Amino acid sequence: MVLWIGVDDTDSRRGGCTTYIAALLAKKLQEKGFKLIGYPRLIRLNPNCPFKTRGNAAISLKVDAEKEDVKGLVKMVVEENAELDEEGVEPGIAFIKEDPPEELRRFYWRALREIVPLEDGFKLAKKIGAELIYYKGGRGVIGALAAIGADLSIGRTYELIAYRKREYWGTVRHIDPSSVYEMDEATKPLTFDNIDPESGEIRIAPHTPCPVLLGIRGVNPDVLMKAYKMLRIGEPVELVTIFETNQGTDAHLQPMKISQLREGVNAIIDGIVSERPRFEVGGHVFFKLSDGTGEVICAAYEPTKSFRHVVSKLIPGDEIAAYGAVKLKPQGLTLNLEKIYVKKLKPLLVRRPPNCPRCGRRMESAGAGKGFRCRRCGLRVGEELVEIFEAPRGLKPGFYEVPPSARRHLSKPLSISSLH
Ligand code: ZN
Question: Which pTM was predicted?
Answer without folding.
Answer: 0.90
